[in-house]
Write a structure and sequence with these properties.
CATH class of the largest domain: Mainly Alpha
Keywords: Magnesium, Membrane, Metal-binding, Transmembrane, Transmembrane helix
CATH topology of the largest domain: Calcium-transporting ATPase, transmembrane domain
Radius of gyration: 28 Å
Number of strands: 5
Strand content: 5-15%
Order of helices and strands: HEHEHEHEHEHHHHHHHHH
Pfam families: Cation_ATPase_C, Hydrolase_3
Protein name: Cation-transporting P-type ATPase C-terminal domain-containing protein
CATH architecture of the largest domain: Up-down Bundle
InterPro entries: ATPase_P-typ_cation-transptr_C, ATPase_P-typ_TM_dom_sf, HAD-like_sf, P_typ_ATPase
Distance between the termini: 34 Å
CATH superfamily of the largest domain: Calcium-transporting ATPase, transmembrane domain
Number of domains: 2
Helix content: 55-70%
Largest sheet: 3 strands, parallel
Strand order of the largest sheet: 3-4-5
Subcellular location: Endomembrane system
Number of helices: 14
Length: 350
């Protein structure tokens, strides 16, 4: 192989040769232009894949290697590759050595397999981005409020509802989107890439900082303006719609506003988390995923009924139209925060 690689350094096709050690320098010179390896033996396939894997471990190339085969002699290359595709019509040894079995024995199914593989990877990353952001904020608000105010702004039952949004409903909404053509245009993920990439971490930290600033700012404003009359701030912070539960807790308006603003920010952040590579439009293709729309709409409707009619069971008091507008506006601001974060580039972002 060393002689054939060296001899073919100026062309895009090379003739096969008996198995031998590859000259790394000659291989690197040829590899960017190599498209066809004529008369390739199983040993050559194994050597080609092994050379690429070794050079990647040395950080000299970034390629993720896939191999297809259907014969027993293809098993070594299928085993050493990052992903091995075997035809259903192949030998039992080839099928056993492969990572993915093409049931229809069609090469076109490889494209579908790659698309769905990237979709699963993106779904896990989406959910992690949403889950970590919501958990950081929920824990910080509950713990920080308990230390500062001597009571938690989020009650136990409210936290149960928040956990339902963060876990079951969010996973259904974010993990059920079908793959798109744009996923095939993106570079592949390296095997050692973390699920929480620098881009995802940037949005987790940025959104969590924004949400914590808003929620603790609301608590400060509620304590300062709650008793004022005749001002615009009093219209927002000076009293809700009342209710029987209000008589049992002097802080019910504060906790209801913080709870509602927190949930609204999570609902809008679900839209942000649909895209984890700093794409421009998080609403692109939204109408093609009715399940996502139905889940988010269901969460919004349930939140309305919990706030307006939950009463003592959920430790809430009905809010006015102005207070609902405030909470929804703060939630929608999460979309703008994502736009600002797109302009921030961190080391290691791809």
């Amino acid at each position: 192989m060393r002689d054939s690689v060296t001899a073919a350094a100026g062309s895009s096709a090379a003739a096969g040769a008996p198995a031998a050690a590859v000259d790394p320098a000659a291989f690197l010179a040829l590899w960017p232009r190599l498209r066809v390896l004529a008369r390739c033996s199983p040993g050559d396939k194994f050597m080609l894949v092994s050379a690429l894997r070794q050079l990647r471990e040395e950080s000299r190339v970034d390629e993720v290697v896939a191999v297809t085969g259907d014969g027993t002699n293809d098993a070594p290359a299928l085993t050493v590759a990052d992903v091995g595709f075997a035809m259903n019509s192949g030998t039992p040894i080839a099928r056993e050595a492969a990572d993915i079995l093409l049931l229809d024995s069609s090469f076109s199914s490889i494209v579908s397999a790659v698309a769905w593989g990237r979709s699963v990877y993106a779904s896990v990353t989406r959910f992690l981005q949403f889950q970590l952001t919501a958990n950081v904020v929920a824990v910080a608000v509950a713990a920080g409020g308990a230390i500062w105010l001597r009571y938690s702004p989020l009650s136990a039952v409210q936290m149960l509802w928040v956990n339902l949004i963060m876990d079951s409903l969010a996973s259904l909404a974010l993990a059920t989107e079908a793959p798109t053509d744009a996923m095939l245009d993106a570079p592949p993920n390296r095997p050692n890439d973390p699920l929480v990439t620098p881009t995802v971490l940037k949005h987790i930290i940025g959104q969590a900082a924004f949400q914590l600033t808003v929620l603790f700012g609301m608590l400060v404003a509620l304590r300062h303006y709650g008793g004022l009359d005749g001002t615009a701030m009093a219209a927002l912070f000076g009293g809700g719609g009342g209710g029987a539960a209000a008589a049992h807790s002097p802080h019910l308006l504060e906790t209801t506003l913080v709870f509602n603003a927190f949930v609204q920010m999570q609902l809008f952040n679900q839209l942000n988390c649909r895209r984890v590579r700093d794409e421009f439009d998080v609403l692109e293709g939204l109408t093609a995923h009715p399940l996502f729309l139905a889940i988010v709409a269901g969460e919004a409707v349930m939140q309305y009924f919990i706030v307006q009619y939950g009463g003592e069971a959920f430790s809430t008091t009905p809010l006015t139209a102005a207070q609902w507008a405030l909470c929804c506006g703060l939630g929608a601001a999460s979309l703008g925060v994502r736009g600002l974060l797109r302009g921030v580039k961190l080391a290691g972002e791809r």
